[in-house]
Description:
With 167 residues, this protein is mainly alpha-helical.
Amino acid sequence: MGSGKTTVGRELQHRLGYPLVDMDHVIEQRAGKSITAIFAEQGEAAFRDMETTLLNELNDPAAPRRIISTGGGVVGREQNRAWLKKLGYVVWLHAPASVILERTVKNRSRPLLQTEDPAARIATLMAERNPFYQETAHLKLDTAGLCCGELATGILECARYFFNNRP
């Protein structure tokens, strides 16, 4: 959350010409409502079910190459982590809690941060999710202090090395 997934995904789309699948956006389109409304009306578990369903659909080996921007909590389910690794090169865009707070504090469309203490909530989410990100990602990139172009270049170089050195 707030690490730059969508922004970096758009930059990679521009550079590679691959379509960008922003999972949050697809889920909002399918549901006909915002993620905030989904959380409020149906709960987080329903939203996570929607993520899992979409990830399963994306896990088609015949599908063309694409860039997938996931929601931050998609790694919470073991099946999702397995599918992500199977889908391709997984990048964990990491930012310190203070940077995430700064980037998200004024954004009312983040239902998990609508609490009295968003900083504590961010710290809790990071503590819960970081082991899953570590397990799933091929690459961890710290986004603090880097611009979108620098992040995209780093991802492309690391992915090129990864794919050129696979057995």
